[in-house]
Write a structure and sequence with these properties.
The chain is an alpha/beta fold and 192 residues long. The chain is 21% helix and 30% strand. It starts with a helix and ends in a 10-residue tail after the last strand.
């Protein structure tokens, strides 16, 4: 089994293997090229996103400076807005649904280094997927760690550190992030 296959399967893998380092270089060239574009470069931005990500939907807007680790483990749905300074470490799969909004400086981290010092020195890591449902709002400065799923229609409050799954249709916040309440009729600004 290659290190790439081990990584995708969630097994410990060598974070500094040649294959992973080569893919990081490709990703860096692509996200740096993207970060040099402006709003007037919509076609070029779309082309770079198609090369960088596993899947990218329609009407996706990413503000520079965007950083990712590999890129090709990221899938983005339709009508997604990712604000300034987003970082995605995608050694594990990252799936972002439709109609999702990220505030500034959101970080998604699918990988964890080994706890054992000898294994850590040997560059062993384990990756787990992150899944963001449809119509989710992830506010400014939120950090989401490996293995977390955020359910459809939920809101993650600013500055939260999400270490556990968040169900659908709730407001959650804090460090560690926890459910505060259900989103309901009381949250409608436009009645009727």
């Amino acid at each position: 089994m290659t290190e790439w296959e081990r990584m995708l399967a969630g097994y410990p893998c060598d974070d500094r293997s040649e294959a992973l380092e080569a893919r990081r270089l490709v990703a860096k060239k692509l996200f740096r090229a993207y970060n040099r574009t402006t709003e007037e470069d919509a076609e070029l931005r779309a082309k770079i996103m198609r090369e960088l990500f596993r899947r990218v939907g329609k009407n996706v807007f990413i503000e520079p400076d965007f950083i990712c680790e590999l890129g090709n483990n990221i899938s983005i749905g339709d009508d997604v807005f990712i604000n300034f300074g987003c970082i995605i470490f995608d050694m594990g799969e990252v799936a972002i649904g439709d109609h999702v909004m990220f505030g500034p400086r959101v970080g998604l981290y699918t990988t964890n280094h080994a706890f054992d010092p000898e294994e850590r020195v040997a560059n062993l890591t384990v990756s787990r997927p992150i899944r963001i449902g449809n119509r989710v709002w992830v506010a400014a400065d939120v950090k989401i760690v490996q293995g977390v799923t955020v359910g459809d229609d939920s809101i993650i409050g600013a500055g939260s550190v999400v270490t556990r799954d968040i169900p659908a249709g709730v407001v959650a916040a804090g460090n560690p992030c926890r459910v505060l309440r259900t989103i309901g009729e009381q949250d409608r600004w436009l009645k009727g």
